[in-house]
Specification:
The structure holds two protein chains of two kinds. By secondary structure, chain A is α+β, with helices and mostly antiparallel strands. Chain A is 49% helix and 15% strand. The relative contact order of chain B is 0.13. Chain B folds into three domains: 129 residues, UDP-n-acetylglucosamine1-carboxyvinyl-transferase, Chain (Alpha-beta prism), CATH 3.65.10; 102 residues, RNA 3'-terminal phosphate cyclase, insert domain (Dihydrodipicolinate Reductase, domain 2, 2-Layer Sandwich), CATH 3.30.360.20; 68 residues. Classes of the chains: A alpha+beta, B alpha+beta. At the A-B interface, helix 29, helix 31, helix 32, helix 36 and helix 37 of A face helix 5, helix 7, strand 15 and strand 16 of B.
Amino acid sequence: MEEKEKKKHRAKHSGPKAEKKRKRYLSDLGLGDEENARKRNPKAFTVHSAVRMARTFHRTQDLKTKKHHIPVVDRTPLEPPPVVVVVVGPPKVGKSTVIKCLIKNFTRQKLVEIRGPVTIVSGKKRRLTIIECGCDINTMIDLAKVADLVLMLIDASFGFEMETFEFLNICQVHGFPKIMGVLTHLDTFKNNKQLKKTKKRLKHRFWTEVYPGAKLFYLSGMVHGEYQKQEIHNLGRFISVMKFRPLTWQTSHPYVLVDRMEELTNPEDVRINPKCDRKISLYGYLRGAHLKNKSQIHMPGVGDFAVSDVSFLPDPCALPEQQKKRSLNEKEKLVYAPLSGVGGIVYDKDAVYIDLGGSHAFQEELRPNHELVQSLISTHSAIDVKMASSKVSLFMDSRPLGSEDVRQEFVMPKEEKQVDLKTGRVRRRAVFEEEEKEDDDAVSDEEDDEEEEAAMSEDGSDGDDEDDAEEESDTELLEEEMAVERAKRLKPEAINEEVVNELPAFADSDDDLEMSSEGEGQTAPEESEIEEDEEEEEEERTYKNESSDSEFEAASKREAKSKQNEVNTEDTEMRSQILDHSLKRKAGLTTDSGNCTEEEVSESEVANSSLSEGDPEEGSGGELEVEKSDGKGFRHTPAKKADSIRQTKLKAVEAAADDDVENLLREEEEYEEKIDFSADTIGALKWKEDLTQKAAQAFLRQQRSTPNLRKLVYGTAVEDDDHESEDAADELGGLFRVSRPDKASKEKANALDCSKFLIEKPQDWDLEEVMSSIRDCFVTGKWEDDKDAAKLLEEDEELYGDFEDLETGVVHKGKHAAEGDESGSEEEEEDGKMSKPEPEEEEKKKERMDKKQKLKERFDAEYDEGDATYFDDLKEEMHKQAQLNRAEFEDQDDETRVQYEGFRPGMYVRIEIENVPCEFVLNFDPHYPVILGGLGNSEGNVGYVQLRLKKHRWYKKILKTRDPLILSLGWRRFQTIPMFYIEDHNGRHRLLKYTPQHMHCGATFWGPITPQGTGFLAVQSVSGTTPDFRIAATGVVLDLDKSITIVKKLKLTGFPFKIYKNTSFIKGMFNSQLEVAKFEGAAIRSVSGIRGQIKKALRAPAGAFRATFEDKLLMSDIVFVRTWYPVSIPTFYNPVTSLLKPAGEKDSWSGMKTTGQLRHERGIKLKQNKDSLYKPIVREKRHFNKLHIPKALQKALPFKNKPKNLAKKGKTPKDQWRPAVIREPHEKKISALLSALSTVNNYKIRKAKVKHREQLKEYLKVKQKEDEQKFRRQKEAKKKIYRILGQREKKRQKSSLKGSSKGEKSV
Amino acid sequence: DFEASFIRLIDKVTNGSRIEINQTGTTLYYQPGLLYGGSLEHDCSPSRGIGYYLESLLCLAPFMKHPLKIVLRGVTNDQVDPSVDVLKATALPLLKKFGIDGESLEIKINRRGMPPKGGGEVLFACPVRKVLQPIQFTDPGKIKRIRGTAYSVRVSPQMANRMVESARSILNKFLPDIYIYTDHMKGVRSGKSPGFGMCLTAETINGTILSAELASNPQGQGAAVLPEELGQNCAKLLLEEIYRGGCVDSTNQSLALLLMTLGQRDVSKVLLGPLSPYTIEFLRHLRSFFQIMFKIETKTPEEEHMGGEKVLMTCVGVGFSNLSKTIR
């Protein structure tokens, strides 16, 4: 058998097994594991270079501090406003789908169409406002300014698009909100590898734009037109846990992302002039900073406005109240999107709307259109009606919209309820149709109950009406036609009524005073109700209606009411307090009753019915309202139920008498009722104003007992401008008696306008008592127990016995002692409660322990802070301030708080604005965001703004000075004309014609003042779409001023007309002596570079002057002086009013055109200056004159430098020219022979010369040798001679020495 | 007269403001410009003291474009306006509390001038700030020392000493740490009219400074005043001021409130003595200009012998920032 070859063993090189083996091997070698390299090889980790180590340390420290942000005071309120999530991306990338999915994820509701912001509760502590951002650059700019979080959708199948980058750049300029990328359309990739690659590529590009590691989400595929549930869920989780860094601009300015708009214009005005300025109210969450009433705001796309009124409303999308639960239940998952037609309950200033539709999905498509049309076209009679006191209105999504009621319902929702009653059928039908199932039982039951209680037949009749309505509902079309007709009829009537009644409203108050005297009982209860809830306010209004009844009726009713109210024990106290007030309030109240009577007289239709007949009708109307509201009340809170029942009972009694009459008249008077109500509401408004004021006064009055400085300073709390005069005139309350003398003194002081506080009657400081009154203000006086040094010392000694106290500062001691005392006392109390029987010693022990503990803590705190950095200190300080900010006004109720600090962010506010251009209302499109940006104190002004600007590197063209440019700066978008400049070294701002290519330059424009450091961006136009990058430039505001110092260079030229040596007379530069005088001493220059100075004006040609130069000029020279001419900046500031454009064209705003565009459009060619055309350069040859040296100078020169005129021999004159020689052939032969001979001769001579030279060389050599020998010989001979001579000399010296010594001796 | 001078001063420190006064002088149209600052000089009308001008400059100076350095000439001390000495002693420490600090913050009295002719000269310099700090200044603390200046110009130098003696006689009952400088100006530095007066300041351990001052009647008006009497009265005024108490003395209440208002959007608190009518009027102006309302609480000192009632003023700043300051 053949053995199969066995597989050879192969050692593993990778995998866990190999790893294990390697480790074992290494450990056998004693090398251990890698982590322990430090231990294994300590030498490698020693310090090699101290310098290098210091550097690395510095570096790490730098990196660490770089991570710090400058600490800012955390001013976010306790209940922050919803986070603004902006979903942005190029078209068709799936923005709306993402929003829908997110909403569905958070709220389990399905919105079919998204228009405007949608607010949802996303968690226990967070709400989101999600808004979609279109590709219009206006929208992008506006939303980037308010965004907290940006969801940037990117079509992965296509890659990045311009919009994405544009939006990123906009974000960068206006403070960088959090940005999260979302990749969609990932299901288009079939190839997995390619998908991965794309993802990676996009991710890295995204990172370079945002920051490395920025979150990028992947939404893979669609399932039934939605993204996958799990992915959306994750996305939602990410959004709801995200943290935000406060952005400077956003935290320093209040702003509102408007989620609802309503028009409040008087319909009469609109009728007279459909283009008149409108008054609107806008709703939304306040964000950023505190908003003050009457402050200035900017609405991007519309303009600047002053807020005429602000009020806060209950939160329509409130966070759940208790926090203990783990997750939200379904009820708390609210969604609020009025522009999309969603939102459970709508609260207004004085009305509540409940959306009862369970059938959103099915009606949604219809609704928006109606609403829109509604708010636009709407309603002439509407506004006053709206202002009317109406109450709870039930609104059904579905029905009302189609019908005539809709008109009123939407624009003036307050009135809705009344409308229901009057034009009952339509309304009711809606109720039944929609809510048959859910609400029928509830409502009708309630109603029934009430009916029973009241023992009335009235509601039965109502029921009939309702039935009728139901029947009618089937024929919808028909009815709508009718509605239109009705509306038409209604209009003129309503208008008439208003005209008639507006004046009487004021005038009638006098005669009504009589009435009011009877009605004290009534008014008092009303007062009491003010303090109660809104529901009760509604009831008040019914009172009002009743008060309009004829007097005899009113009297009886009031009796009843007062009786009723007396039952309420709670109210009685209030009433007593307010009674003194009632006079005023009555006046206010009765005005509307006056109205009503007036109306009724004027009504033609009611003419047949008597006054009394008309009135009961109204009364019943009011009653019905109440019933409705009651119905709601039942549904809502049982607590309110009781009240409302009481009220209805009351009313029922009253209404009983009028009932039959009412039934008779009912059908006829539908219209009239409407009119009545509209008229009523006019009165109601006034009444209401009074009401708030009065209420406030009453409230204050209660507090009168405590002397209230605030009143003294600010007058009656809620300020009315005229309050002072008014109060002074008719009120003599304790307060004002006090304040009046004060005013007098104030005036006295005013005359001098001096801040000194003069003392009227100084106290006698010689008296002992008086002196003692301030005794303790001095350090020598008595200290508080806890700070008294003596006492402290005592205590310390008690405590510590022998311990030496090293702390010497008094304050130190004070503090610790104070703490000790407090704690001690607390302890004692506690102890007292807990364990009385315990022996005192233990108590003391405990006390001591406690004190020690405290001391230790303090010690720790002190010494731990020792190494705290400056940064930490700063942070701590900021934190403290933040806490103080929060705590300061916490205990106050919202009303007063608003007065102190303004409306705080997080509140849902309603802002009224007047004088809004009608186009805003007419062309309102909820798809475009409306933002109210609050302006700082002087940001409403205009002035010159200096910027640092850089052309965007992706923008194709360069920008030209004096071309209009659209800037987005602060909240604003506006067109202006910037001038570019660059700063020279001496600080001069020199005008530039164009922006530099890759460099910053300065720019100045005339426009709105915006704080320094604010970023801006510029675009050339906001209309249309170009494939190119649209952002032209970005930069920052540097300076604001009222004047500017940009200059451009101006060269004045002149020509010499007389030249002396260095002095020349120049003309043509100036026109008069005066001009010259201004420039005396100015430096001038010739084109050839000779510098000079202007000396003095000449008389002869005007404007000529004498000037000196450093050299002599030529007549051909041009002389110029450099001057700087200040440039004026065009005062052109044109806000971009894109929101005023009609619906489809909002992205087509175009402002001033550039000259280039105009030329292009009109085909105007620029006429060029011929001089500036390019032509071939022709250079003439230059001739230089000879250097001429004067003779005197020549003589003085040394010969070397003397001009040598040898070269200049001059031409020989013609007569001296030698004639040319022409030879004969014979002579030619001779000369040829001669030349040949001479050549031979020359050769011989040259040869001989060479020979001779060689011989000479030989000879010289020989001679040199001989010379050398001779020289040597001579040298030797000389040597000999010198030696002999030397020896001889020596001998002589010797002998002479001897001789001399002898001689000396002899001498 | 002095108002015209004031308007001229305002015109000097601003850029681009428009001022129109109608012919009868009954209406004034003023369009505010931009606070510019810089080195300036101004001759104040001698009908009001320099304090009148200086007070408003104190409010404006921190918000200029360039640091203000202005020489004001006129009456340094008179009976109506807070004198320059008092402002120097009280307003400057107050400004420092708000973060307006630095060595360039100073008031220097070069010459004294008494009414009616004046002839004084004051140098006021103030640095520029972008934002102000909020303050929490609710504990005045106890008074640890009293300082003061007794000045005399064109009268016997003995006057000052006499004033000091009499003032000390009263104040010594409360506190031993009293030092009152005598300041006798001679020659050019003494202005054009004779007069004398004194101002006293009381400083607490927490840095609060309260002040009082008195000046003699101007030459040729009213009876002559004895320096002893003046010294005593001045000391009593100081005691009165101490009785009122607070963390800011009555002259500077409005300044403190203004700077609180113009702070960042944070809560500021300050404890004041009873509000002066001027301050009350000022508060009303603040409300109409800034929509700022102060929370006003009266505090009665818990203990005896601590003077009169105090007022705790609380407000949230408007978030003002100096728009004219250039950034580089």
